[in-house]
Amino acid sequence: MNGQKENVNKMESCPNIGGKEIRKRWVTGxxxxxxxxxxxxxxxxxxxxxxxxxxxxxSVVMAIALLEALDKTCIVNAFFGIKNMGQKNKRExxxxxxxxxxxxxxxxxxxxxxxxxxxxxxxxxx
Length: 126
Prior knowledge:
The protein is mainly α and 126 residues long. The chain has one domain (31-125). 71% of the residues lie in helices and 5% in strands. Strands 1-2 form a two-stranded antiparallel ribbon. A hairpin with a 4-residue loop joins strand 1 (82-84) and strand 2. It is elongated and about 50 Å long. It starts with a helix and ends with a helix. The relative contact order is 0.18.
């Protein structure tokens, strides 16, 4: 019984990135956040019309990078079945972990896109 509980905990959290890879996501996320905020301020100050929609791109990069760092799951690595815990890329051999990583990457992509769409809609209607 105890083994099943440990297996469930592993399934809820089976990261495919670690160390430097997570730091890269944080840095990318924060830089994209700064670009998004600067662009948002620029949109408020200047009326640039339909070009306001361009805020989607830095905001989607920001949202996905920060969500990847929080979940310790790279969406690209999950797709290709790769794990990089700080040293080098390795093949993910555990099919159950790979399935969880791929479902997490889909959720990360959807959440990131929704966050970027919300930011874009706010920028458009302000």
